[in-house]
Structures are given as C-alpha cells and as structure tokens.
Amino acid sequence: MNDEPRLSAEQMIERLSGALSPWRRLRGVAALVAGLAGAVFVVLLWATEPGPLPGRTQLAFAMFTLFCLAWAGYGSWAITRRAALFALDRVIAAWLALAASIATTALTMTLAAQRGSGLLPAVVVGVVFIAVAAVLAVRAHAGRAALLRRKRELTG
Fold this sequence. Notes:
mainly alpha
C-alpha cells in the first residue's frame, strides 16, 4: 500500500513546528531589551525625583516597572526555548498587552477626570487599545486551540 514509514505523533509534531526561526528569536530579544530598558529608565526616573512623590505617582511608577519587567521576562523566556510551544507565547503576550492596556486606560481616565480635562479622548484612546489587545488575545487563544486540537488528533 504505502512504503512510507509511519511517524509517531511526536515526530509529526516536530515536523509541524521546527526550531524557532531567527526572526522569532529576534522578537524575543527585542522584548527582553525593551522591557529591561523600560524598567531601568522608570526606576532611574523614580529614584532621581527631587522630592517625595504622592502615593498615586509611586503606584504608577511601580506598575509601569512591573509591566516592563513582565515583558523582559517574556522576552527571556521566548529566547531560551528551542521550539514553539503551541502558540503559548502569543497567548502570554496577548494577556500582557491586555492587562497593560486596561491598567493604562484606567490610570489615564482617572488622571483626566481628576484634572477635569479631556476625559472623552482618554476614554476613546483607551477603548481602542483595549479592543485591539482583546482581539489579539482572542486570535492567540484560537490559534493555540487549533494547534492543540491537531495534536490531539495526531496522538488520537
């Protein structure tokens, strides 16, 4: 019938997702460098303030530093892997982007409401960022689900 040898499920999966390409590794390095640079910049800016900062400003500095460190962690995780993990990296990045968008929108709307200037533009821009991040998260989950479904079919 067929002279081709039967491949195991793991061999078939290896053929579907080979080693990470140089471009994907470069994106991981870019996320790592941008995250570290952002965290260092914010911490230095925070440390060189001439006087004590209000609590909300300190919270904003801390949150932004955490987001930068999360991107640095994602970048380092992405470049240390040898092969794709069924699009899990995109799902993690999408959730990071969604969390950052929601926090940034909330902070921007709070500041705009307290200052009494331009609440509508802050809301519109925030909603656009959140919508784009949510669409990316849904696409990442759908892509990962499709790959996991294929893996189940192959291991069947």
